[in-house]
Amino acid sequence: MKLTIKNIRARAVQAPLKRPPRSASGEIPNAALVLIDIETNEGVTGSSYVFAFMRSMLKPTVAMVEAMAEMINGDAVVPFEIEAKLRKRMTLQDSHGIAGQVIAGIDMAAWDAFAKGLGVPLVRALGGEVRPVRAYNSCGLWIKDPALLADEASQLLAEGNHGALKLRIGRPNFKDDLAAVRNVKKRIGDDILLMTDFNQSLTVNEAVYRGRALDDEGLYWIEEPVRHDNYAGCAKIAAEVKTPIQIGENLLNTFEFQKAIDAKAAEYYMPDVQRIGGVTGWLRAAALAHAHNLDMSSHLFPEFSAHLLAVTPTCHFLEYMDWANSILQQPFEVKNGQVVIPDVPGVGMTWNEDAVKKYLLA
Predict the structure, then answer these.
(1) Which residues neighbour 68 within 8 Å (Cβ) at sequence distance 6 or greater?
(2) CA 359 to CA 341: how far, in whole Å?
(3) Are residues 262 and 189 part of one domain?
(4) Which domain holds residue 44?
(5) pLDDT tens, position by position, 127-178
(6) CA 155 – CA 158 distance, rounded (Å)
(7) Has residue 125 been placed in a domain?
(8) Which of 20, 211, 269, 282 is the most exposed place for a label (fewest CB within 10 A)?
(9) pTM as predicted
């Protein structure tokens, strides 16, 4: 079915979080989300959301969606063409920051509408098949008293029978990080994978010191030890620390991805669909990871990431986060440590309008 854009609606919500994040780089009291709906003349609506990080960024993000909507209202729902048009129009202003996030959000909604117009799940519209995608539970184990983490780790494993968890580290006193790692590892055992994330909180030298000390703790990876775009620093850490280094959630496009690869900045990469450029940007990044034989995981947005990882040649791990669950009619299911892709047209994401109304930004 050929679809034409009739209107694009953006709504800001502050969705409650079951376990509000507290990392070494800051706290997030609730999920500041902008819901994007592309309404078409044919009655099909494509939906997505973007994460604005904080309440103060919600209204500017909505305004940017509305500004870009004026550029494409009346256009056919052809995602590659929409993405190219928006990026061309934003050439002088550049498409980083809020502009880039909004282009990605519109791209994601366009792909959802496109797949619905075909009557197939997004993964099939992309040439793949509906299948489970391996995930790790990233919904907890934030910076808190190390003595409290073992019980929480047990809870997280039970929520979907996960086989892998992520623990946040980067406390001022490294002894507390070691205690956190050891408490969780003792509880979950060697058969469960444990990833860790410093959330960009260290200097290069401190990251090398802590990384070497963690090499004997049985960690699966160490994520973002230093500033995300310090590729040379990441490369030094990767060369001197045995545990694999994971970066990529802040990659703004495939050009930055190539810079990181050229610098040998990490062993693993995990683009964020919102930052890398939506579905269209993800496909380009996946091709790059494939060309360089690099394992590719996802960051946030499990609803879209599941479809995308299912067509990623070097698919590694999906980061399962429940940040949008409170405003969805049917949150995605996790079974035996795998996210289940709904076998329905589009992404399979429908707003719970009662919840949206409840959490709508006044």
Answers:
(1) 8, 86, 102, 103, 106
(2) 26
(3) yes
(4) 5-119+352-359
(5) 999 999 999 999 999 999 999 999 999 999 999 999 999 999 999 999 999 9
(6) 5
(7) no
(8) 20
(9) 0.96
